[in-house]
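Lab notebook, bench 4. Still working through the backlog of constructs that have no structural model yet. Next entry is a single chain of 166 residues. Request: give me the structure tokens for it.
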Amino acid sequence: MIWSLSTVLAAAASFWLQLPLSPLPQDPAAVASGHLVLLVQGDARGLTVSHVFAKADPYAKPRDRAEAHQVAVLDAAGRELGVYPLDLSPFDLDPARVGQPPRVEGDRVIATRVVALVNVPRLRDGVRLEIRRDRVVVGRVAPDRYARLLADADKRVTDSDRRGGK
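Model written out:
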């Protein structure tokens, strides 16, 4: 069977248009300078962001890879500004094993308690976060808590700058 170029391009366009993409916002003004490193903690029952670290470096989009977990940044109206992958594959997220000691498989230690870092761009209109597993919300950071986390992150950056640190 011989495929025409237009058939191949149409099939490729159809495939790519069906993918759930979440690129950076198209408006560069929507992205504040730098990015955030979020410390995600919890277990199979729920996850939250316990600390935020502000970084001056621009956000570097990770290589495309599907993850069951994501962090969504939302604006005040609840609109998604972006969704970013959260790799929790090193952790045991079986609810039946919550609270059990870590297991060892070969050279890997698999804990039920999650402590993970994820990078997200710092979005000007971002006021709250959701942590999702397969599109189901498993954790939230409310606007007041997110504002406090950002203020603490900015204070740490300012204090570090005064000391000459990075």
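Notes after review: The longest strand covers residues 31-43. The beta strands are 31-43, 46-55, 69-74, 80-86, 103-105, 108-110, 114-123, 128-133, 136-141. Flag for follow-up if needed.
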